[in-house]
Amino acid sequence: MRWVSRATTAAMAAGTVVGLVAAATPSVAASKSAAPLASVVRCTSTDHGLAEKLSRDVTKALAGRKSMVSLSFYDRPTGTRCVLDDAKAYDAASTAKTIILGALLYHRGGTLPAAEDALARKMIIDSDNAAATTLWKRLSDLKDPAHPNTVKVQEFLDRAELRHTVPDKEGFWGLTQITAGDQAALLRIFTGTGGSVLGGKARAYALDLMKNVRSDQRWGATAGAPLDSVVHVKNGWLQRSRNPDVDVFDRGDWKVNSTVALTGNGYDSGLVVLSENNRVPEGHPENEGWDYGIATIETVSRAIYRDVYPGTGGYTPGKPAPEDAEPLTAPGV
After folding, report:
1. For residue range 29-63, what is the model confidence (pLDDT) as tens digits?
2. What is the CATH number of the domain that holds 275?
3. What local confidence, expressed as pLDDT, does residue 38 receive?
4. In 3D, which of 146, 181, 152 has the Cα closest to residue 167?
5. pTM, whole model, 2 decimals?
6. Is residue 1 part of a domain?
7. Per the domain annotation, does 150 fall within a domain?
8. Taking a C-beta distance cutoff of 8 angstroms, is the pair 259, 183 a contact?
């Protein structure tokens, strides 16, 4: 999804842009914020050797990458967890659509009327922005259209204890601030059992939509997933504008995010990888920053799945498809 400016046109396309993974190293923005954080991958597991191996291999996967990355991984059967800067805030892009879906299901008691069912399916399966905007409005107080009050979204966030997720105050759902920790918690809600903020019917519905996300949008944290697992995915991608009112670090930067849950055949895990500082080398096509972010995420996900599920055979995602939708103006307002 390509975003420009909060103050001017925050435009974004529901499709993607074509391009091979960039071989060039992205340039670094002229800001001290652009330096990758000196953080440590922390893993725990009932298998101490697995935890140590994961910490080493994820660190190695990120070595030399210019992307700034946060991640959160859990695997319930092995009691394994890995985190890296999982409380750092990122622009959500279309990963906000799982939040919209969760809030909608919460307020509708798990059953959507036909019109909202159609919108939810387009929002998740096709990553349709117009559908997301319509549902976002239905969850907001629009007495002041210039400053929508996302009261029903916030109610869901509070109930789900997603305390570090902050809807954009100007009403742009794609600029909602998310963390890897909160996104992993949302995946645990979708894949949970009794006692969740969402009932079984709502959870099954959300997972079914994510299972059926169209093939050209199944890149990212799906890479390397066991071939005998059921893969549920929602990705997000945007490029911030180069307008002067945008923070110097954000100008032109690609934000690329991926959230995946694995179920079926004994699998019960979730992986969230959020990234920024995916820069476009000067004179190169704009989509190279996006491709670079995807490559970073897929390098990490392959390392994790290879360690946790050795010998299972890994999924190879296809490349994103060309843009196939007109940009929308000021999504979420």
Report:
1. 334 344 444 589 999 999 999 999 999 999 999 99
2. 3.40.710.10
3. 53
4. 152
5. 0.87
6. no
7. yes
8. yes
